[in-house]
Design brief:
Immunoglobulin-like; 7 helices; 25% strand; 24% helix; single chain; Rossmann fold; 7-stranded mixed sheet; 8-stranded mixed sheet; 2 domains
């Protein structure tokens, strides 16, 4: 891997990393840091693998990810592994921090709190909330969707790689006559994201705080939302949706608290983080899942094992009592590990999960 050109404003001492589908899109992974050669190019040796690798360059965080020629968010790059070694040359056109991102959140998206307490983790987090268009002009009660990685849900100005457009999608579905829902978005903890989004420890990437985080969702945040707003609090009216590591923790939380969360949208899940432990947990500990609905989404080339991991999990869920009709899978050949893909597919997932 070689970078032959960088934007002129790039500092001479800049550290450039390759966030990618092999390292769970970690923006500052030292194992994927490019080093300058004698000609001033940034180079990195990548181990041979199979399939297609998606990647994007950063200066160590998503606020300084590469952009397109206009300084806007760019699509993921792709590399298809071959039998022979190859040199892939790249030119970085801009850094996103050099661009001014627009505020794209609609009027019915609010900041619930800038520092909502998470006592289970001894920290706090910004929480977003989306209100249905008729929330303040009616007395209706609504289903609730809890979503991870709130930075990327509603507002392009806060996102690291584009937004899901949750508000625009649900506003459009409401205008078309579909049922409405409240959406509560919990921002991730940045450097703590991997730790909080997995109950198990990965020797390389961390993890292990997922139980505390899911307890926060079930025992702190959900009771607060149900007390403060007009909700339909039953599990059948409550969903968890997340992607990548957010998909992993949403899946786990739904398994651990089926009496709280009855609808799960699992997008491009990082089951690889500790598939053995996850599989064991589903087999040994998951119970009372007969009423839970699962919507699995993945691109067929996102990673070597993503689709097969999902397919392996389905018969286990059925064995645990989940009716086959409560499980929906959608695998897309053009699906990428990206907000643009998840944004495109959110509406269909929402309609399936809440069709009843």
């Amino acid at each position: 891997m070689k970078i032959t050109s960088v934007p002129k404003e790039t500092p001479d001492n800049a550290r450039i990393f390759m966030a990618n589908s092999l390292n769970n899109w970690t923006p500052n992974d030292p194992d994927f840091e490019l080093k300058k050669d004698s000609d001033g190019n940034y180079i990195l040796q990548i181990p041979e693998n199979e399939g297609t690798l998606e990647y994007k360059f950063t200066q160590g965080n998503w606020e300084t990810a590469e952009g397109d020629s206009n300084g806007n968010n760019s699509d993921n790059r792709k590399l298809t592994f071959g039998k022979n070694s190859q040199t892939i040359e790249n030119k970085i056109l801009s850094w996103e921090h050099a661009a001014t991102k627009k505020n794209t959140a609609t009027d019915n998206v609010k900041i619930l709190s800038e520092n909502f307490s998470i006592p289970q983790l001894n920290t706090s987090r910004r929480i977003w909330i989306y209100f249905p268009p008729d929330y303040f002009t009616s007395t209706k009660k609504y289903p609730v969707i809890y979503m991870q990685d709130a930075q990327n849900l509603f507002n392009d100005a806060n996102s690291f790689s584009g937004e899901w457009k949750i508000d625009e999608t649900l506003n459009q579905l409401f205008a078309e006559g579909h049922k409405a829902a409240i959406v509560v978005g919990i921002e991730n903890g940045g450097a703590e994201r991997l730790n909080e989004y997995s109950p198990w420890n990965n020797a390389k990437y961390g993890g292990g705080k997922g139980d505390a985080y899911t307890e926060f969702l079930a025992k702190t945040l959900k009771p607060y939302i149900d007390k403060s707003y007009r909700t339909l609090p039953q599990a059948k009216n409550t969903a968890l949706i997340g992607s990548s590591m957010g998909g992993l923790i949403s899946f786990y939380a739904g398994l651990k608290y089926p009496e709280k969360f009855g609808k799960l949208g699992i997008f491009s899940p990082s089951f690889w983080f500790d598939f053995k432990a996850l599989n064991l947990y589903v087999n040994k500990s998951a119970k009372n899942l007969k009423n839970t609905h699962f919507y699995f989404l993945s691109g067929t080339k996102e990673s070597e094992n993503m689709v097969s991991d999902i397919q392996t999990m389905i018969p286990v869920l059925i064995k645990k009592g989940v009716p086959a009709v409560h499980i929906k899978t959608k695998f897309d050949k053009d699906g990428t590990h990206s907000e643009s893909y998840w944004s495109r597919e959110f509406g269909a997932a929402y309609l399936w999960l809440f069709k009843n």
